[in-house]
Amino acid sequence: MRETYILGVSMTRFGKFLDRTLQDLAYEPIWNAIRESNIDPHAIDIAFIGNAYAGLITGQESVRGQVILREAGISKIPMINVENACASGSTAFYLAHKAVASGQAELALAVGAEKLFCGDTGRSLKVLSTSSDQEIEGRMGILFAGIYAMRVRGHMEKYRITREQMAKVAVKNHDHGALNPHAQYRNRVTVEEVLSSRMIADPITLLMTCPLGDGGAALLIGTKEMAKRMGKRPVRVGSTVLGSFGFTRKDERSIAARVSNKAYEEAGMRPRDIQVAELHDAVAPVELFLYEELGFCGPGESGRMIDEGVTWLGGKLPVNTSGGLTSKGHPAGATGLAQVAEIVWQMRGEAGQRQINPAPSVGLVENGGGNVAGETAVVAVHILLA
Amino acid sequence: MRETYILGVSMTRFGKFLDRTLQDLAYEPIWNAIRESNIDPHAIDIAFIGNAYAGLITGQESVRGQVILREAGISKIPMINVENACASGSTAFYLAHKAVASGQAELALAVGAEKLFCGDTGRSLKVLSTSSDQEIEGRMGILFAGIYAMRVRGHMEKYRITREQMAKVAVKNHDHGALNPHAQYRNRVTVEEVLSSRMIADPITLLMTCPLGDGGAALLIGTKEMAKRMGKRPVRVGSTVLGSFGFTRKDERSIAARVSNKAYEEAGMRPRDIQVAELHDAVAPVELFLYEELGFCGPGESGRMIDEGVTWLGGKLPVNTSGGLTSKGHPAGATGLAQVAEIVWQMRGEAGQRQINPAPSVGLVENGGGNVAGETAVVAVHILLA
């Protein structure tokens, strides 16, 4: 396995775009990523396209990636549509890295795009619920907010995490998102506003949840030589690990703990080496569990971590400097690649008003997706090194 | 890149099974493939799951593979849902091969499953049509039979292929399918019956088209050492190539010609080395073009090839000994893996009443999928060696 590097990265602003097609949302970041890499598009050997719901929202199923890439003038190469619910973009990233690392390709394109907003929120929520097991959660009629709420309640009981601490995650991520021109929501909120916003599934309030939205993100993965020619600080894929549900009595670690352990091991890093992270805060309280599961703190210490400002911009380990899913938005297929884009920008010193100083050199992305038999179906963790 | 071998292979009978779930259709071949390989399921490192339409037929989108594998008792490993219309199974095969060839995995599972029959043919056809570009073919309102019919008309004009010759392909594949216990249709038909059956899209008649149906197929890909331990004739993946649409004036070869050329080259084989082939006869006349595009004969010689019985069981190059899509059936996600299964069985001498004697040692699979901008969106070609 050889080293792989992230070349051009790009994303659209996330938001509600009834006037933009899936192709259009993918075209913009594909061409910006290609242009930034300064590489002839014909040099792309293989493409992986992450999208979770287009078949159910736009009616374009099956060959979504081909339709997207035709629009971008790319043809003939292997095009692989991947789908792993909200981790579809990370799955494209994982495969693009593996293709280059193994020498199957010199230059791989990973694209993620999603249209979730269709003007009918009920329909969008129904479509999202297809990412849970239809024979278990589907029969019970539980939507994702309900699934998350039960987990959060369990965690509150066990570790005495308070509603204020959960609200602070939303406040932090909105603070960060306010500085990000790509974010769907750029307004700041207060703890009081978060707690008094509409209750969605106790203890999760409206301002703790990510919005429905559309967007696209793309990046190119290539060799060390290509990265050198770009003339920017090279960002290397230290590791990328994809794992699935599988909670058993023999192995009580959560999927995020299992997957991140493997990612640390493969990258030769420890949790305390991480200087910046983008985590899957589909609802804000989950970010707290992730601090613990990823080893950023011990069990039950995440509440203190947010209280002490560790994960705020300016803290020791800024988390979700992009605004996270809560504020930047969460167009499923695009999310994983947008998370990687944020880390790359931070490492290159291109994060504008939300830039960490000095630019970090070890970053982590965690992206989750779907639900099967009461557990998150997929978790991807990437460690990036500059 | 190291050599990879096909270990256990299995498929369900194809047919219309309102009483079987997607999970059930996948479970049967997964467990049979594992049992045949005589390998502990915990040794599986990675799984690729091909399915094209479950989100639109059963409502289980996104984490289809996870739901399938949970049912089979498989968890924790990377699970990657792939979708490439009717070539979804071949895409899973391609990635499973690459994972083992590159040393990322020792043992990879490729699964394909589909439920297309829902008791409402109109709905199934609408779902199938999502595999064409919704902004081109979708707006025109053309279904796949119409797209194929236009291609066949063009070919008839150019090469004087007759309706009788097209009908003979359907007769041959039904003759073969009659010998295959896995086939959806096991009845023989005559040229007269094919030509007088209902006209679907001139010149394609009902008996020239593949049926709607459900099914599953699975196989394991592993190392040479594992293949040796199986105690069966080892079948090696000589090459697997995935290509996309992209007809340009500079390159007037069809996608099947381009992709197969690369597959021959990678396997170090020529068209005349092929001893058995499974081709994507979604409508029977397409098999004739494929003889030409894959180099089995020269341009315009395919009509004579079927007339002379070359591709019949007992001929020099039997094609679609399984019955092909026309007779065996075509549950999209399963098709590509079922095609590989047929070649493996022929090579091992396990093809029962349809066994080629002596067992072939060089075989080819061609699997197509979707339609984009007037062209087949995806073609996969694998060359297998025993």
The chain pair with the largest interface is: A-B, 63 and 63 residues
What order do the helices and strands of chain A follow?
EHEHHEHEHHHHHEEEHEHEHHHHEE
CATH architecture call of the largest domain in chain A: 3-Layer(aba) Sandwich
Quantity of strands of chain A, as a count:
11
Overall pLDDT level of chain A: 94
Query: How are the strands of the biggest sheet of chain A laid out side by side?
Result: 3-2-4-7-1-8-11-10-9
Radius of gyration of chain A: 19 Å
Derived structural class of chain A: alpha/beta
Low-confidence stretches of chain A: none
Distance between the termini of chain A: 19 Å
CATH superfamily of the largest domain in chain A: Thiolase/Chalcone synthase
Number of helices of chain A: 15
User: What oligomeric state do these chains adopt?
Assistant: homodimer
| Principal-axis shape of chain A | globular
β-sheet strand percentage of chain A: 15-25%
Instruction: Work out the count of structural domains of chain A.
Output: 2
Class of the largest domain in chain A, according to the CATH hierarchy? Answer: Alpha Beta
At the third CATH level, what is the topology name of the largest domain in chain A? Answer: Peroxisomal Thiolase, Chain A, domain 1
Major sheet of chain A: 9 strands, mixed
**Approximate helicity band of chain A:** 25-40%
